[in-house]
Amino acid sequence: ENSANVHKWMAIIMDTRNGLVSLENRVKYSPIVRDHLIRACELNPQDFTSQYMLGRWCFEMSQLSWIQRVIAKYFIATEPPKSSYEEAYRYLSKAEELQPRTFLPNIYLLGKTCIEMGQFYKAKYYLNLAVNLRPRDECERCCINKAKYLMSKLDRYDLGKNVLFYDTYPFGFSD
């Protein structure tokens, strides 16, 4: 009951097992997976992995569209749990704070989360960071390629030097 590692591994095993059985099982048991991850984060707030996994869980739940939720409720007879991009960002940024610039998928997911929240400049920061890290495996190379693609879509949100160095009232206000 009071072991962060037990809760973390329960979440991993349950999610993997239920994902292999069926989509219905994965949706049905996802609140239990979430609860295990939350408990793992509470018991050990310094565990990077639990923070990342909970952030990823929140991101994935936030990605479900209204129609996907209706279909899941109709066919699976249970509504998928809800989350928000802000909640995902909170856990993912905590993971990044615990182990800065070490896990490329976390940085990439932070960039995607910022895009979904409409924070394009912050998204460019994380995606640029991901692109400039050295990949250690194929998964990280894939994240870099996806980050490059997303960055190309964000090119219109370019910060110029004039935005960084402005007069007292940069938006046309006067004394």
TrEMBL record:
InterPro entries: RMD1-3_a_helical_rpt, TPR-like_helical_dom_sf. Interacts with microtubules. It comes from Rhamnusium bicolor. Keywords: Cytoplasm, Cytoskeleton, Repeat, TPR repeat. This is Regulator of microtubule dynamics protein 1. It is found in: Cytoplasm, Cytoskeleton. GO terms for cellular component: mitochondrion; mitotic spindle pole; spindle microtubule. Its main location: cytoplasm. GO terms for molecular function: microtubule binding.
